[in-house]
Design a protein that fits this description.
Layout lengths: L1 H13 L20 H6 L2 H10 L5 H5 L14 H14 L5 E10 L7 E3 L7 E10 L5 E6 L17 H10 L8 E4 L6 H9 L3 E5 L23 E6 L4 E7 L3 E6 L7 E7 L5 E7 H9 L2 H8 L11 H24 L12 H13 L30 E3 L5 E2 L1 H13 L14 E2 L1 E3 L14 H7 L6
Helix pairs in contact: 1-11, 5-10
């Protein structure tokens, strides 16, 4: 199964077409051949594993279908819970973290499929992610399954689903003093107040109808000039509200930043000229630390062109990439990726090494007739030919592999020639190699045994 998971990662890294085409060798299109995959798995075996792999016991995991709280993710729930637990155990979170949403591409029939027109992946499964702002490490995630299905609604906390998602993702870190950044979809005064009760601090853009002070909301955009700032602070809770004018008003709520701290930022006018204007520290930090989830979602992106009817396999492949990217970040903690006078080790190089370690020495060759099952593969061409000897096999109805390959290539290149007129005959033989377990001609004048063990293209 490790080799199977390695090939799945290899496919996501290098191939976007149909999986069966990886095993379709074409002499005229040699650039599209993948000989490494064919050495690891036989096509039918890999397709069978991909078709029949399951992550739960259907009868026990599904339970009663008439239950209103029926888990729609029962097919892959055990895998997702295990990964969430391992992600949190392997990495101590940093102070600054970000919550945002990502998309797993899927366009099949699914009850909780979403359409997000502002996302690069417009159709798919929406996933809420909690990641570190600096390293993009994924700490926790939650799949959106529809309204009133994500977590338990708490009457003492915020009632909006988007704000309940923030609490569910941050629940393992209550009391840690983390700084959480999120966008206007999540931010609200009730959420920030509830987070303060659990020693969590937040900052994010917001909508004016979510507890924002009405007295600092401009009636018109022309009431503020570019770079102007208005703020209010609730001293009982410590929540700071900022209105900063850029091309349009920006509304922020924060429990992290002071109210009157300003910084100089570079903006541009309509002609492209650089302008230095003042901005609150909350705006500067928000712009710098909100990219963690977006970069993680970009680095672990799935191919949108490959079609599948099983939605949980999409989530499983995405989970594999999440785990691989987190391992890439953990590797940087012990062996820094940036070394002097060397190119930085990127995620693609790490994936390549990971795939080779998962596959290891595993190989599954298609056994030909007379091949002994369970034996280790022996190299066909080796410098010491004394390791290969002919022996008389069982039966006499065996075709020489060299003659058969010559016959196939001649008939493929000359389809107009009849089989009876082909100069290359499919010779029968009863002799086979003691190590290769293939049948070869041993008659007078035949060089099939020698050609097979000394030539790479033995049919020439």
């Amino acid at each position: 199964m490790k080799a199977f998971f390695g090939i799945l990662l290899y496919i996501e890294m290098y191939w976007a077409g149909r999986i069966e085409e990886l095993w379709t060798a074409n002499v005229n299109k040699f650039l599209l051949n993948f000989p490494g995959v064919t050495k690891v798995f036989v096509c039918k075996r890999f397709i069978a594993l991909l078709r029949y792999v399951h992550f739960c016991e259907e009868g026990q995991a599904r339970g009663h279908c008439d239950n209103l709280r029926f888990d729609k993710l029962y097919k892959i729930r055990t895998v997702l819970n295990h990964l969430c637990r391992r992600f949190q155990e392997c990495y101590v979170p940093e102070r600054d973290n970000v919550i945002d949403e990502g998309m797993v591409p899927f366009k099949g029939r699914l009850g909780f499929k979403q359409y997000r027109k502002e996302k690069p992946t417009k159709w798919g499964i929406k996933v809420w992610l909690l990641a570190t702002s600096k390293t993009d490490y994924l700490h926790n995630f939650e799949v959106y399954m529809g309204r009133n299905r994500n977590g338990d609604m708490n009457d003492a906390g915020p009632t909006l689903l988007s704000q309940q998602v923030v609490l569910n993702l941050c629940r393992p870190y209550f009391g840690s003093g983390m700084h959480i950044y999120f966008d206007r979809f999540y931010t609200g005064r009730a959420l920030l107040y509830y987070m303060l009760q659990h020693w969590l601090y937040g900052c994010g853009t917001t909508m004016v109808n979510r507890g924002f002070p009405r007295e600092i909301v401009p009636a018109h955009n022309r009431d503020l000039q570019r770079g102007d700032t208005r703020w209010r602070q609730d001293h009982s809770t410590g929540i700071v509200a900022h209105v900063w004018m850029d091309n349009k008003p920006i509304y922020l709520l924060s429990t992290i930043h002071p109210a009157d701290f300003m910084e100089v930022v570079i903006r541009h006018d309509n002609r492209g000229n650089a302008l230095e204007i003042d901005a609150p520290t909350s705006v500067v930090d928000y712009n710098q630390k909100m990219g963690g989830v977006d970069l993680n979602d970009k680095m672990t992106g799935l191919s949108k062109s490959r079609k599948t009817y099983r939605w949980y396999m999409r989530l499983f492949r995405k989970s594999l990439l999440w785990a691989a990217y987190n391992a890439y970040i953990l590797e940087d903690c012990f062996d820094p990726h940036e070394a002097p006078n060397k190119r930085k080790r990127d995620f693609r190089s790490f994936l390549c090494d990971l795939v080779h370690q998962l596959i290891g020495n595993f190989t599954q060759r298609q056994c030909s007739r007379g091949h002994r099952p369970g034996c280790d593969p022996v190299p066909r061409i080796i410098p010491e030919a004394a390791q290969h000897f002919p022996e008389c096999g069982q039966g006499k109805d065996h075709t020489c592999v060299v003659c058969l390959e010559k016959f196939k290539r001649f008939t493929r290149a000359n389809p107009e020639v009849a089989y009876s007129d082909c100069p290359v005959k499919r010779s029968k033989t009863s002799w086979q190699c003691t190590n290769c377990f293939v049948y070869l001609c041993m008659k007078k004048g035949a060089t099939c045994f020698q050609d097979y063990h000394t030539k790479v293209q033995y049919w020439r």
